[in-house]
Specification:
The complex is a heterodimer of chains A (111) and B (114). With 111 residues, chain A is an all-beta fold. In chain A, 0% of the residues lie in helices and 55% in strands. With 114 residues, chain B is mainly β. The chains are: A mainly beta (111), B mainly beta (114). The A-B interface holds A 31-32, 34, 36, 41-46, 49, 51, 87, 89, 93-97, 99, 101-104 and B 31, 33, 35, 40-43, 45, 48, 50-51, 56, 88, 90, 94, 96-108, 110.
């Protein structure tokens, strides 16, 4: 089983739609979770951290389910500019960050 | 707002040539990382440096060496380039040992080995 698994997609959604991605992780000792966004041929950029109680940043909501070992990202009112690959990132903390990146879920928002 | 700076942005090498990829960060981060990204493979850690003066192997270290020159700079060296090392290389940095401290990436070096 991969340490971090994501559905590669692509998810093709119309503008204004709501879309959700899940990501599962295998190491129950994982402590920190993030969603990154990566545009084609660009560097990954932090979208948001994921906190135990769930957190929201504008149209984006992230959730963590430790019991089932997954995190989710919900995007409301999708914009064309949301088209990108979304990377799930999981890390163990302690001394250094052992960080594992998922291979990403591709989102294409269609006019 | 420089953040993480990588040089060069593009490079073409012949098999067997050597080169060094440079990375510098101005965020006073302790930890620095080198990744490669290949289609369908996601980001794979080559080497990391938890703090100045230390380096450790990641998932795919073969064929590479690194130097943590000081707190700001972390270089990646290909001693004898091979076509399998054609990839996009990203450097990243983060604070060490802190929960929920994300990594910040440079904009990458696109390397082709002929």
């Amino acid at each position: 089983r991969k340490e971090v698994e994501q559905d590669p997609g692509p998810f093709n959604v119309p503008e204004g739609a709501t879309v959700a991605f899940n990501c599962t992780y295998s190491n129950s000792a994982s402590q920190s979770f993030f969603w990154y966004r990566q545009d084609c041929r660009k560097e990954p950029k932090l979208l948001m951290s994921v906190y135990s109680s769930g957190n929201e940043d504008g149209r984006f909501t992230a959730q963590l389910n430790r019991a089932s070992q997954y995190i989710s990202l919900l995007i409301r009112d999708s914009k064309l500019s949301d088209s990108a690959t979304y990377l799930c990132v999981v890390s163990l903390t302690g001394g250094y960050q052992k960080v594992t990146f998922g291979t990403g879920t591709k989102l294409q928002v269609i006019p | 707002n420089a953040g993480v700076t990588q040089t060069p942005k593009f490079q073409v090498l012949k098999t067997g040539q050597s080169m060094t990829l440079q990375c510098a960060q101005d965020m006073n981060h302790n930890s620095m990382y080198w990744y490669r990204q290949d289609p369908g493979m996601g980001l794979r850690l080559i080497y990391y440096s938890a703090s100045e003066g230390t380096t450790d192997k990641g998932e795919v270290p073969n064929g590479y060496n690194v130097s943590r020159l000081n707190k700001r700079e972390f270089s990646l060296r290909l001693e004898s380039a091979a076509p399998s090392q054609t990839s996009v290389y990203f450097c990243a940095s983060s604070d060490r040992g802190q929960r929920n401290q994300p990594q910040h990436f440079g904009d990458g070096t696109r390397l082709s080995i002929l």
